[in-house]
Design goal:
By secondary structure, the protein is mostly helical. The protein has 3 helices and no strands.
Amino acid sequence: MAPIDLLILIIIHWIKRHLLVSYSRGINITLVWIPAHRDIPGNEIADKAVKKALKGRRNNFKLPTSDLILEANKMSVSRFNKYFEDASKTIG
């Protein structure tokens, strides 16, 4: 798994955990997709702040085993499907 893929899984886990905690406290949160690089002032400011904050830092998040197992299963299915597709083309 590429480092960026692992980072994405870590971020997703962190967001899910905080959403569940917030929901359990009666706080409703709505997530909205904001496209990158579209000259949206708040987005550009946030992007620069995140890059500055993360520069030279390492994260201390631990990925839960359940997420690793899910990712491993997805990769296995994907590899099998590719093998099956390639074999069907060469073997017939």
